[in-house]
Amino acid sequence: MAANGSSCEQSQRRPGPKDKLNGKSTDLSVRERRQKDKEERLSLVLWKRPIITLNYFLLETIIKLKEWTYELWHRRGTVFLFLVLCSVFSITYSAEGGHQQYVQYLERKFLWCAYWVGLGILSSVGLGTGLHTFLLYLGPHIASVTLAAYECGSTDFPEPPYPDQIVCPDDGGLEGSISIFSIMSKVRLEACMWGAGTAIGELPPYFMARAARQSGADPDDEEYEEFEEMLEQAEGAQDFVTRAKLGVQHMVQKVGFFGILACASIPNPLFDLAGITCGHFLVPFWTFFGATLIGKAIIKMHIQKLFVIITFSKHIVEQMVSLIGSVPKIGPAIQKPFSQYLEAQKNKLHHAGGSRSADDNWLSWVFEKVVLVMVCYFIISIINSMAQSYAKRLQQLRHSEEKTK
Questions:
Q1: How far is residue 310's CA from residue 317's CA, in Å, rounded to a whole number?
Q2: Which region is the signal sequence (predicted)?
């Protein structure tokens, strides 16, 4: 009995210092293993291991296609309804009649909106890195409309060719009749659609964290792992990045809708963390997405629009060109092509399909190459990210096999 009692006492005793030490060493070994696996995955890039990276990318692509096909099959009722609607629209689109003018108008508007929504999604979706579509597409579009409005004295550009090409109307207004608000109204649709696209691109981190929290399984995302580690290390955090992340997390968690709205209404590279936080704490979908949509598509976009329009107003541009010329030695040489480029743009606004000058071609060539480089980098980052995702699948499979042994 004494032996049984002592054994029972030993089995029910509290964990001692030795047990705590073993627990800490186990946690440390797990973190070391995760860090080692992470370093191994990050080394899987095209410029270091191109063959393995491309192989893993193709395998991950096949797996994703299978998963999407499986999901569509389970939602075949919705897919069938979508196909029926597409068939009805196709018949309406191809049938002759007086409705064709409305169909063509809706088609142009739909494609225009879908174009900017797609660019917005590409800007914020978590595929390793975002394509900076505001700097590459929306910002230059707003700038060109601003310059044209001041030159033409009107925003009533003939449609078509607008928006593919801007041409001053024959009965142009007075230069002084153009205001910032009239230009903002002209580009409001595309800017809001782009902002809505960025809001849609923020949904994957939210759904990932929400599913991980509800299932109780280990989340298959490094951002979520970093989020949990940040919560563990919240006490005594000193570095600026950790404190900034904690600030976003606390604002979203405590303030709710208005905290999300505040984070979404300003340029915020840490907003992915807001999505993960909302998913982790099971914030309702419409609370998160509604605040994100209002913040990004309305408040933030009006701030960004206003900044671009003011920057490219006629008198500001003329001052910038004159400041370039005041730079010692190289200023006049740089000022000349910019002045000629602006003059060529002004002339082109008054002549549809006008010829392009050599300086216009030179600057356009530079911009096209910058866009090409950034798009190529974006595609490469997607390939690397998907290859690393497949490598993570292999690592998880290896670890699960080690546990069963």
A1: 9
A2: none
User: Is residue 267 reached through a cis peptide bond, with omega within 30 degrees of 0 on the bond before it?
Assistant: no
Q: Tell the residue number behind the tokens 């191109």, with chain if given.
A: 50
| Amino acid sitting at position 170 | D
User: Hey, CA dihedral for 37, 41, 43, 49, is it positive or negative?
Assistant: positive
Total structural domains within the chain: 1
Return the closest-CA partner of residue 296 out of 259, 262, 256, 257. Answer: 262
| Residue 398 Cα distances to 43, 51, 66, 391, 405, angstroms | 18, 22, 22, 11, 11
**pLDDT tens digits, residue range 257-272?**
888 888 888 776 667 7
**Residue 216 phi, psi dihedral angles, 5° rounding:** 75, 5
With respect to residue 392, please indicate whether it lies within any of the assigned structural domains: no
Tell me the whole-structure pTM to 2 decimals.
0.70
- Establish if 234 belongs to a structural domain: yes
Q: Could you tell me if 127 and 61 are in contact, meaning their C-beta atoms sit under 8 angstroms apart? A: no
Confidence of residue 235 (pLDDT cuts 50, 70, 90): very low
- Could you give the CA distance from residue 346 to residue 78 in angstroms, rounded to a whole number? 51
Helix (H) or strand (E) holding 223: helix 222-232
What is the residue type of 335?
Answer: Q
Strand, helix or coil for residue 235: coil
Q: Which of 279, 278, 282 is nearest to 261 (CA)?
A: 278
Token digits for 158?
């003939």
Classified as helix, coil or strand, 129 is: coil
Q: Would 294 be classed as within a structural domain?
A: yes
The structure tokens listed for 160 are 């078509």
For residues 374 and 391, the answer to whether their CB atoms sit within 8 Å is no
Query: What b/e sequence results for 157-182 when a residue is b if at least 16 CB atoms lie within 10 Å of its CB, and e otherwise?
Result: beeeebbeebbbeeeebeeeebeeee
> Is 270 in contact with 244 (CB distance < 8 Å)?
yes
pLDDT at residue 211, rounded to an integer = 78
Q: Does 172 map to a domain? A: no
CB 387 within 8 A of CB 41: no
Round to whole Å and give the CA distance between 252 and 275: 9
Residue among 154, 264, 246 nearest 206 (CA): 264
Handedness of CA 60, 62, 65, 71 (dihedral sign): negative
Residue-number span of the structural domain to which 282 is assigned: 202-311
Please say whether the beta carbons of 319 and 335 come within 8 A. Answer: no
